[in-house]
Write a structure and sequence with these properties.
By secondary structure, the protein is an alpha+beta fold. The protein is built from 13 helices and 24 strands.
Length: 557
């Protein structure tokens, strides 16, 4: 049970980190969206400036975690120490005539930290790779050589190379030719489709239409001031398909295309009989219609609702079934005259004769603006299987924009309740975000997530904090997602990230000794392999010496 709940909690961690941005989007339009300022600080950096993130995981355990998992306290202390000392560095940026991506794993701090790193430089000429495992050297490969290593032939390589030689004038000319061809194709497609569209429009105009006024909920349709009901039987649909088949069989353009598709492997089969050409395919369609589309007692209905002013308010599609049930799609929209409130209802599924849903899903979304200026959004969703509610979810959001001392501020309150297959989850969260005096922003969310399964409950308190700004003319940001689950023996755990920029000089890469895969010899490869394996072995030896003994023992079990 505990493992099940913990797995569920960990799967939600990433979603919680993104929740603030999602809520802000739903509160549009607002002039300040949390996260935008911080993101903008690290965009459009000048060439040679790398945008970097140092990412770490932290965890603290209490005695109950040892009791639940069987892991002794010394091992947990060793695991905590390892997590505190491990860092993943990721950075990227434009430099020279390309892009540089750098990854590094570090254990420890300061100059004594153990690390393994690799950089990938992507340029117009090709790729180059450098690493501290081959210190002082880099491996390069041209795009042509890389394509050959991936199995591309001369024709493909020549075609791709020609793309890199295109000028802006070439691209503009190609786009003009493409647009001309697309326009000609669209005109031809419209000409070919015209008789079929005319037949469909003629069919639609011949459908029976009924107009109802002041329809109430108990009529079987969504309540509306004006309702238009369009009815179409299976037999009418069959007659339309037969008339379309008659057109297709004589079509000098589409019939040969279908003949080619059938000859190329397209399978058209009915009751064990397979068509070998267009004429036979049309004959099979007529046979299928005669056998299956003859009923006039269970029609398909399209129901359009409108308010007193004729503004559409509902759309319902209903198809009766043999056992007295019916399949329906229902969409209704209601809103206030001043546009401060609206409600949207959507459902799709199988209904019983009394209108209750047997299988399917229904969702209601309402939005309002309260007297305090907060945008309130509530979403309720129900899923039915066999007439029973198999899934239920309610989500409420309140996003308010205000101004404090001339600085915009966004306040967010969020609640989620979900029940499915005996598992219940409740999440509550609140927070405030605003720009700060350092040119960045300060964002703080905190809340609680409670998961119940098999009569056991696990509660997790969480907090998500971002603080960014311009320090000494350089953008910096720190982000922390911290959680606490005492029921599981986890006092505190989470993810911490530091974001910053630094300068990288392309001359550093240019000065490295080059080993080109285009011309590399077996002796050169031996030099690289020997250096990398020796450096890796030395790193692993030092790492094993630096790791706590209890952690090494746990890994070797």
């Amino acid at each position: 049970m505990m493992k099940r709940i913990l797995g569920f909690l960990l799967a939600l961690c990433f979603a919680l980190t993104c929740m603030g941005g999602a809520l802000a989007e739903q509160a549009e339009p607002v002039p300040y969206n949390p996260g935008e300022i911080t993101s903008a600080m690290f965009e459009n950096l000048p060439s040679g400036t790398m945008s970097a993130t140092d990412l770490g995981i932290f965890a603290m355990f209490d005695e109950s975690f040892s009791e639940n998992t069987g892991v002794d306290a010394n091992t947990l202390a060793a695991l905590t120490e390892v997590l505190d000392n491990a860092t993943l560095h990721v950075s990227a940026g434009a430099y020279d005539d390309g892009v540089r991506i750098y990854l590094a794993g570090l254990y420890g701090y300061s100059e004594s930290a153990l690390s393994v790193d690799a950089a990938l430089n992507i340029t117009e000429a090709g790729l180059s790779v450098e690493s501290n495992l081959i210190e002082g050297k880099k491996v390069t490969v041209t795009w042509e050589t890389l394509l050959r290593l991936l199995g591309a032939d001369d024709e493909t390589i020549a075609a791709l190379k020609s793309l890199t030689e295109l000028t802006e004038e070439d691209v503009a000319s190609a786009l003009t030719v493409l647009l001309d061809k697309l326009s000609a194709f669209a005109e031809k497609a419209a000409e070919v489709a015209s008789p079929y569209l005319e037949k469909v429009l003629e069919f639609a105009e011949g459908l029976p239409v009924e107009t109802l006024e002041d329809v109430t909920d108990d009529s079987g349709y969504p309540a509306a001031a004006h309702v238009t009901v369009i009815t179409c039987t299976d037999k009418a649909i069959g007659e339309l398909l037969v008339s379309l088949a008659d057109l297709l069989e004589q079509d000098a353009v589409l019939a040969p295309m279908l003949d080619q598709a059938i000859a190329g492997g397209m399978d058209i089969t009915h009751n064990g009989v397979t068509a070998t050409n267009t004429a036979e395919a049309c004959a099979l369609l007529r046979t299928a219609v005669a056998e299956e589309l003859t009923d006039e007692s269970r029609p398909l209905q399209l129901v359009l609702g409108a308010d007193e002013n004729g503004v559409p308010s509902s759309l319902t599609v209903i198809k009766e079934m043999e056992d007295g049930k019916y399949v329906a799609f229902i969409a209704t929209l209601a809103y206030a005259d001043d546009n401060t409130f609206y409600s949207l209802y959507l459902s799709a599924g199988t209904h019983l004769e009394d209108g209750s849903m047997e299988d399917g899903i229904a969702m209601t979304l309402t939005a309002d603006v309260d007297s305090d200026g907060a945008v309130l959004v509530t979403t309720q969703m129900l899923g039915y299987i066999g007439g029973e509610v198999a899934m239920q979810q309610t989500q409420t959001e309140s996003v308010k924009l205000s101004e404090v001392n001339g600085i915009p501020q966004q306040t967010i309150d969020y609640a989620l309740s979900q029940t499915q297959e005996g598992l219940t989850m409740d999440v509550t969260m609140s927070g405030v975000a605003n720009p700060n005096e350092e040119g960045g922003e300060t964002i703080g969310y905190e809340g609680t997530m409670t998961v119940t399964a098999d009569d056991s409950t696990v509660a997790t308190d969480f907090a998500y904090v971002i603080i960014s700004g311009i320090i000494e003319d350089e953008p910096t940001a720190s982000m922390v997602l911290s959680m606490s689950t005492p029921d599981a023996g986890l006092d505190q755990y989470g993810i911490a990230a530091d974001c910053y920029t630094y300068a990288y000089d392309p001359a550093t890469t240019a000065a490295l000794e080059e080993y080109a895969l285009d011309t590399i010899t077996s002796d050169d490869m031996d030099v690289l392999t020997t250096q990398a394996s020796t450096a890796l072995q030395d790193l692993l030896t030092k790492l094993m010496q630096a790791l706590p003994e209890a952690f090494v023992a746990m890994m070797s079990e």
